[in-house]
Amino acid sequence: MNVHFDLPPELSASAPPEARGLSRDEVRLLVASPSGVHHTAFGSLGDHLRPGDVLVVNTSGTLPAAVDARRAGRPIAVHFATALDDGSWVVELRAPGGPLLDGRPGERVALPEDASLTLLAPAVPGAARLWRASVSVPVPSLLAAAGRPIRYGYVPRSWPLSDYQTVFAREPGSAEMPSAARPFTPELVTRLVTDGVVIAPLLLHTGVSSPEAGEPPQAERFRVPATTAALVSWVRGRGGRVIAVGTTAARALESAASGGEVRAAEGWTNLVLGPDRPARVVDGIVTGLHAPEASHLLLLEAVAGAEVVRQAYAAAVAERYLWHEFGDVSLLLRH
Question: Is residue 163 a contact partner of residue 148, using CB atoms and an 8 Å limit?
């Protein structure tokens, strides 16, 4: 990884921009490309796009995926990460200080609504953070009754689920918000479309972050519709740029790419973009700012190139951009 930086704690956004008196599209936007770095506001995104470019957006909605629970009589939280095909769920057990890594097969955890879960096996062989678990009640109903959005220590108070939804959200399923799209507003989308920018939807349901050191990215459920595959091919054939809104959209679209072509696809993706698998169809990415050493930084390098990402993060730290889901945003372009 070519990006190394120290993140001062005060650069972690602790609340939605609306709580700071800003609209969603008034967060800062850092634009980086081989020609340099530019600073602006997100509402000016269209100034850095061209008619005929396509923005690929994730239509996954955020679940209230955190639930209070009791483990051997002690209060903990359970983060519901991913619904599996057999009806079980990938879950993370958490204490206030972070993940609990001492789970054991057959352990039972008490949930609200007279429900419970039973740990079955580690979701990742050899890792201790995520578990496959059976749940005694339908999880969507449990989350609707007792869940709240997942948040981490840099966000000290709770915010309503609506603050964790993007304008594109249609199908609930993400444990954490696909946050790169949060700054979009209906008015901005209208301006972009009017100016000739194409919007193409796909779906990827995100799991939970905060992995253990060395833990690989988790498999995630995705769907690239035939219309989106056709739009991307059409834009590429006419010299337009394919710009993913978020690492989730980049992962899903690249999972449907073969030989430089995009085809309709759905299922589970284990794709890890990085030095061994550069982006084949994505030319740029709209993305939040990621923590030091995060695996997402390798994905950004796979899309925009290591030097563009290095310059972007150096400028973001120097100019005191805000990090994480409620923070500022970057547009990284390969060309």
Answer: no
Nearest one of 236, 304, 245 to 34, comparing CA atoms: 304
Please state the rounded mean pLDDT for residues 275-303.
Answer: 93
Helix axes 247-255, 296-304, angle to 10 degrees: 70
Element (H or E) spanning 313, and its range? helix 306-318
Reading the block at residue 74, the tokens are 């002690």
Do residues 265 and 227 touch, judged by C-beta distance below 8 A? no
Q: Please count the residues of the chain.
A: 335
Average pLDDT, the chain: 95
SS3 of 177, please?
A: coil
Q: Are strands 257-258 and 89-95 parallel, antiparallel or unpaired?
A: unpaired
Q: Environment class of residue 239 by beta-carbon count within 10 Å: exposed (0-12), middle (13-18) or buried (19+)?
A: exposed
Structure tokens that stand for 66 in this block: 């955190």
Quote the pLDDT of residue 127.
85
| pLDDT mean over 209-223 | 79
Q: What is the DSSP letter of 180?
A: G
**Strand pairing partners for 69?**
76
Spatial separation of the C-alpha atoms in residues 136 and 133, rounded to whole Å: 10
Report d(CA 11, CA 16) in Å as an integer.
Answer: 13
Nearest to 180 by CA among 88, 243, 90: 243
Name the nearest CA neighbour of 333 among 35, 29, 24, 7. 35
pLDDT band, very low/low/confident/very high, at 259 (cuts 50, 70, 90): confident
The total of other beta-carbon atoms located within 10 Å of residue 19's CB is 13
- What is the distance between the alpha carbons of residues 152 and 156, in angstroms, rounded to a whole number? 8
Pairing type for strands 89-95 and 265-269 reads: unpaired
Nearest to 13 by CA among 332, 245, 316: 316
Q: Any idea which residue has 């740990």 for tokens?
A: 119
Per-residue confidence (pLDDT) for residue 210, from 0 to 100: 65
How far apart, in whole angstroms, are the C-alpha atoms of residue 69 and residue 73? Answer: 9
Report yes or no: 246 and 206 within 8 Å, Cβ to Cβ: no
